Give the backbone structure.
Amino acid sequence: MKALSQLRAFVARLRFVPGRRRLLDEVTEELESHVELLAARYVRSGMAPDEARLAARRQIGNTTRVREEIYTINSIEWLGAVAYDVRYACRLLTKNPGFSVAAIVTLALGISATTSIFSILYSVLLKPLPYKDPERIYSAEIIVPERREQLPSLPASVQAYLAWRDARSDFSEMAALGPWECNLTGDAEPERVGGARVSANFFSFLGVSVSSGRGFNADEEQPGKERIVIISDALWHRRYGADPTLVGRSISINGEGHEVIGIASPTLLVPTGSLLHPQVPFATRVDVWTPIAATRRGLNNENWDHGVLVRLAPDGRLEAGRQQLEAIINEMARVQMPNLNPRDCPVDTDSRDLRRQDPASSAHALRCFSASAAHRLCEPRQSAPRAGGNTG
Amino acid sequence: MAKGTQSGTIDVLQGTLDLMVLTTLESMGPLHGYGIARRIEQISEATLRLNEGTVYTSLMRLQQRGWISATWGTSENNRRAKYYAITRSGRRQLTAETKNWERMAGVITRLLRTVQQS
């Protein structure tokens, strides 16, 4: 409290320092006026003008002393010393310009290198991801222990996602996303853009808003209702000239009409690359999102090329959740592994080996679901997470 | 301490001028330095010997603390003059200082009385 009032007093003093010469002139003026008024008063009471003036001066006392005191009140001792030091430093610098330039350049380079390294490290490692509760989000990966040498980990599949989502676990929420190649035709030059099939809750999961229009509804994951898209702000500007009437219109993607229901927020960072799983083959930019619509046939021919994001429940334990999901995928693999078409496996070099495995052992194989091995979304695992993300 | 008495007048006690100026501005409203000096003279009935120049040092100190503010106006002799007015924090300070002063004066009075009695 004392320190605070001292600080306040100091700041109050500082206020007067720059104008102290003007203040001094003003005080001189005030003192003169004072003498005049006082002398006039003495004259009125019968004194001779000269005598009155003298008496007035006597009464007012030593004006030089007053001015000196006012100057002292308004100066800050060390500030004068600092000013002197600065001047001295400047003189020295100009005396030896070669050395000065070398020193200044060294400092400039050092400072700029440090700040740029820091800003990179900050954006890569320290800055939280622009999602809701980023520290509770994990990306699932599947590890096949026997295949670990050749294939450190696999992304998940829609089937795995659905099985996980519908089971009870320590994760409160899950979202899936996979690549979708889009050929835009019709309204302008045909164009190939990167897209994503996402679970309907994708935007709400990340806590990312849709800047106009709406997000996906849960029932739009059903086959037949999925002919809708949300497009990126960048694509909306680039291809459609930020046309405000685009929402609600139909655009042709891969030869089929899709209704544009929303425009994604321009700040959306799509979790791709090493943020999600390096082997989910996303395009470098993602500009179109459509709901995942899982048909039975589609599921059976499914690729292990979907990222699954999970959010740990507030009271959930990561290891417990990992084991729950691991159990589910092991069960799934035991039942359905024969249906897994090895040719659809995203990593083709391993397909031959996978085929050779008998169902029993491969069921055993898919046991380690990610979470432990699953890297935390916000922690870089192999490379910088930011470098892996796309802004949409 | 007062430097003794000469012809019935006393010097202004160190540190009390600020309080006097503040009180004057509180009771009289905005005044210039001359006006303040006159008011103090009037109240003290010429028992105080005041170097009137020191009023301006006091005014400067009070401004720095933010207890008074200054604006330019015109004086009786048609010159421009700075008019000083007490601020809200100045009023607070005055209340606090007045209490302090009364306590102090009480102590001194009691002390002097015991000295006289013994």
Q: What stands out?
A: Chain B is about 55% helix and 15% strand.
